[in-house]
Amino acid sequence: MTRTELRECVFKLLFRVEFNEPEDMAQQKELFFRDEEVSYSEKDQAYISAKFEDIKAMIPELDEALFAKAEGWTKNRIGKVELTIFRLAIYEILKDDSVPTGVAINEAVELAKKYGQDNSGSFVNGVLAKFAAE
Protein backbone atom coordinates (compact mmCIF):
# COMPACT_ATOMS: atom_id res chain seq x y z
CA MET A 1 0.00 0.00 0.00
CA THR A 2 1.10 3.57 -0.59
CA ARG A 3 1.52 6.02 2.28
CA THR A 4 -1.68 7.73 1.16
CA GLU A 5 -3.60 4.44 1.28
CA LEU A 6 -2.12 3.59 4.68
CA ARG A 7 -3.09 7.04 5.99
CA GLU A 8 -6.64 6.55 4.73
CA CYS A 9 -6.82 3.20 6.54
CA VAL A 10 -5.62 4.83 9.77
CA PHE A 11 -8.30 7.50 9.28
CA LYS A 12 -11.04 4.89 8.78
CA LEU A 13 -9.99 2.97 11.86
CA LEU A 14 -9.58 6.12 13.93
CA PHE A 15 -13.06 7.27 12.88
CA ARG A 16 -14.52 4.29 14.76
CA VAL A 17 -13.28 5.78 18.05
CA GLU A 18 -16.11 8.31 17.93
CA PHE A 19 -18.78 5.60 17.78
CA ASN A 20 -17.45 2.88 20.06
CA GLU A 21 -16.53 2.50 23.70
CA PRO A 22 -12.79 2.29 24.44
CA GLU A 23 -13.11 -1.32 25.56
CA ASP A 24 -14.67 -2.21 22.18
CA MET A 25 -11.83 -0.85 20.07
CA ALA A 26 -9.80 -4.07 20.07
CA GLN A 27 -12.76 -5.84 18.50
CA GLN A 28 -13.31 -2.93 16.09
CA LYS A 29 -9.68 -3.15 14.99
CA GLU A 30 -10.05 -6.88 14.43
CA LEU A 31 -13.20 -6.31 12.34
CA PHE A 32 -11.45 -3.60 10.36
CA PHE A 33 -8.60 -5.91 9.37
CA ARG A 34 -11.00 -8.71 8.56
CA ASP A 35 -12.54 -6.61 5.76
CA GLU A 36 -12.93 -8.91 2.77
CA GLU A 37 -12.61 -6.11 0.21
CA VAL A 38 -9.06 -5.22 1.27
CA SER A 39 -6.12 -7.51 1.80
CA TYR A 40 -3.59 -6.18 4.30
CA SER A 41 -0.02 -7.42 4.38
CA GLU A 42 1.45 -8.04 7.82
CA LYS A 43 3.68 -4.99 7.35
CA ASP A 44 0.73 -2.75 6.42
CA GLN A 45 -1.38 -4.09 9.24
CA ALA A 46 1.44 -3.46 11.73
CA TYR A 47 1.93 0.12 10.45
CA ILE A 48 -1.80 0.94 10.55
CA SER A 49 -2.24 -0.61 13.97
CA ALA A 50 0.79 1.12 15.51
CA LYS A 51 -0.13 4.54 14.16
CA PHE A 52 -3.75 4.09 15.22
CA GLU A 53 -2.74 3.11 18.76
CA ASP A 54 -0.34 6.07 19.03
CA ILE A 55 -2.99 8.54 17.88
CA LYS A 56 -5.72 6.99 20.03
CA ALA A 57 -3.52 7.32 23.12
CA MET A 58 -2.90 10.99 22.33
CA ILE A 59 -6.47 12.08 21.57
CA PRO A 60 -6.77 14.42 24.58
CA GLU A 61 -3.46 16.10 23.73
CA LEU A 62 -4.32 16.34 20.01
CA ASP A 63 -7.75 17.80 20.78
CA GLU A 64 -6.17 20.36 23.09
CA ALA A 65 -3.78 21.44 20.32
CA LEU A 66 -6.65 21.57 17.83
CA PHE A 67 -8.94 23.72 19.93
CA ALA A 68 -6.10 26.08 20.82
CA LYS A 69 -5.86 26.87 17.08
CA ALA A 70 -9.52 26.45 16.04
CA GLU A 71 -10.80 29.48 17.89
CA GLY A 72 -14.53 29.51 18.48
CA TRP A 73 -14.91 25.82 17.69
CA THR A 74 -15.77 23.05 20.13
CA LYS A 75 -15.73 19.29 19.81
CA ASN A 76 -19.50 19.31 19.42
CA ARG A 77 -19.41 21.82 16.54
CA ILE A 78 -16.85 20.00 14.41
CA GLY A 79 -18.07 17.05 12.36
CA LYS A 80 -16.73 13.64 13.31
CA VAL A 81 -15.05 13.23 9.92
CA GLU A 82 -13.22 16.51 10.25
CA LEU A 83 -12.34 15.85 13.91
CA THR A 84 -10.79 12.52 12.95
CA ILE A 85 -8.87 14.12 10.08
CA PHE A 86 -7.59 16.85 12.41
CA ARG A 87 -6.40 14.30 14.95
CA LEU A 88 -4.51 12.35 12.29
CA ALA A 89 -2.97 15.43 10.69
CA ILE A 90 -2.02 17.12 13.95
CA TYR A 91 -0.38 13.89 15.10
CA GLU A 92 1.63 13.79 11.87
CA ILE A 93 2.58 17.46 12.15
CA LEU A 94 3.57 17.40 15.81
CA LYS A 95 4.76 13.84 16.43
CA ASP A 96 5.67 12.04 13.19
CA ASP A 97 9.00 13.32 11.87
CA SER A 98 8.72 11.07 8.80
CA VAL A 99 5.83 13.17 7.44
CA PRO A 100 6.57 16.73 6.30
CA THR A 101 4.02 19.28 7.53
CA GLY A 102 2.98 20.21 3.98
CA VAL A 103 2.30 16.57 3.14
CA ALA A 104 0.26 16.08 6.33
CA ILE A 105 -1.86 19.11 5.47
CA ASN A 106 -2.25 18.15 1.82
CA GLU A 107 -3.29 14.60 2.68
CA ALA A 108 -5.72 15.88 5.32
CA VAL A 109 -7.35 18.20 2.80
CA GLU A 110 -7.72 15.32 0.33
CA LEU A 111 -9.33 13.14 3.00
CA ALA A 112 -11.68 16.01 3.86
CA LYS A 113 -12.68 16.42 0.21
CA LYS A 114 -13.30 12.69 -0.10
CA TYR A 115 -15.12 12.02 3.18
CA GLY A 116 -16.26 15.39 4.49
CA GLN A 117 -18.90 17.88 3.50
CA ASP A 118 -18.64 20.41 0.68
CA ASN A 119 -16.46 22.96 2.47
CA SER A 120 -14.47 20.49 4.59
CA GLY A 121 -11.33 20.74 2.49
CA SER A 122 -10.99 24.49 2.92
CA PHE A 123 -11.95 24.31 6.62
CA VAL A 124 -9.31 21.64 7.31
CA ASN A 125 -6.72 23.57 5.30
CA GLY A 126 -7.44 26.79 7.16
CA VAL A 127 -7.11 25.29 10.61
CA LEU A 128 -4.04 23.18 9.79
CA ALA A 129 -2.33 26.17 8.17
CA LYS A 130 -2.06 27.61 11.69
CA PHE A 131 0.10 24.62 12.64
CA ALA A 132 2.35 25.19 9.63
CA ALA A 133 2.90 28.79 10.68
CA GLU A 134 4.64 27.68 13.89
What amount of the residues lies in strands? under 5%
Q: Assembly type of the shown chains? A: single chain
Count of helices?
A: 7
- By CATH, the superfamily comes out as NusB-like
Strand/helix succession: HHHHHHH
Distance between the termini: 31 Å
Outline the structure in words.
It is built from seven helices and no strands. By secondary structure, it is an all-alpha fold. It has a single domain, classed as Orthogonal Bundle (N-utilizing Substance Protein B Homolog, Chain A). The longest helix has 16 residues, at 42-57. The chain is globular, with a radius of gyration of 14 Å. The model has no long low-confidence stretch (mean pLDDT 93).
Topology:
Elements: H1 3-15, H2 25-33, H3 42-57, H4 59-69, H5 80-95, H6 101-115, H7 120-132
Helix pairs in contact: 1-3, 1-5, 4-5, 5-6, 5-7, 6-7
